[in-house]
Amino acid sequence: MKISVQNLNMTYPTGKKALQDVSLEMQSPNFIGLLGPNGAGKSTLMKLLVAGLLPTTGEIQLDDVPLIKNEKKLKAALGYLPQNFGLYDELTVWQFLDYMSALKGIKESKSEIERVIGETNLIEKRKARISTLSGGQRQRVGIAQALLGSPQFLIFDEPTVGLDPEERINFRNLFSKNAQDKIVLLSTHIIEDVQSVCNRLIVMNHGRILFDGRSEELIRLAYGHVGVYNEEVQENEEHGFKVTARMNTANGISCRIIAEVLPDFVHPTEPTLEDAYIYLIEKGWKGQ
Ligand SMILES: Nc1ncnc2c1ncn2[C@@H]1O[C@H](COP(=O)(O)OP(=O)(O)OP(=O)(O)O)[C@@H](O)[C@H]1O
């Protein structure tokens, strides 16, 4: 499966330009982490990819056919967890998944529901009404419905919101297991969600793609722009840099900073993916 996005622009009726000249290619197998601050345009891109919105200009192609002419194929191949996924509160977990299976036209629905309930750790909750579930459990039901039918193209809009750290780890494993031969696009604010499992990262801000590549490449961009200094030895607040962490150490407070040019008193250090992400967003922010 191949999805290509060409020069996509999306302006909402309010005049808000949510996407500007976005182009990208996704080919299975591909596990893509979509990162970006609030309002970057991630959900808008996802809604366009599932044909839930039409772009103002530009085109999306599925296997070299425009999406609007290939919607049937898309629906058959798609598993989608939107950001604010409405669940039917009065249904039980099983009834809801049965209903979603029917909508998706899944034939062997019983075994398929059993499979996704098992994969999302919902076995004990299968007969529970959705209204009685916790936020994390509801999120798991949302993930379970997206996995029904083993779709080739999985889109998860902030799937780990509301999950506790242990559940997040379970889901990272589940996502990577499900990504084997598929295209998985996962948006998140949480860097650890994408660091270990995604083989490709796309960073967006202000409706544009700032970076598209491997996490190592993103980290490389931040080399020479991350450093530490001891706040008690050197008091500096206004040096045109961003302090990303303050740690109490035996020798005083150690500050970790990101800057285009590191001041003399700062010792350069190895960037993490989070540093690199912040560096990129800050740099892009200033329009560079
Ligand atoms: N229906 C809409 N009408 C007008 N503006 C919208 C609409 N939906 C989104 N926007 C705006 O478009 C921009 C991009 O929004 P979008 O939801 O795609 O961002 P996001 O990266 O998913 O953010 P978040 O992480 O907060 O979900 C934002 O400025 C948002 O306010």
UniProtKB/TrEMBL annotation:
GO terms for molecular function: ATP binding. Residues 3-231 form the ABC transporter domain. The keyword ATP-binding applies. The keyword Nucleotide-binding applies. InterPro entries: AAA+_ATPase, ABC_transporter-like_ATP-bd, ABC_transporter-like_CS, P-loop_NTPase. PROSITE patterns: ABC_TRANSPORTER_1, ABC_TRANSPORTER_2. SUPFAM superfamilies: P-loop containing nucleoside triphosphate hydrolases. Keywords: ATP-binding, Nucleotide-binding, Transport. Belongs to the ABC transporter superfamily. This is ABC transporter ATP-binding protein.
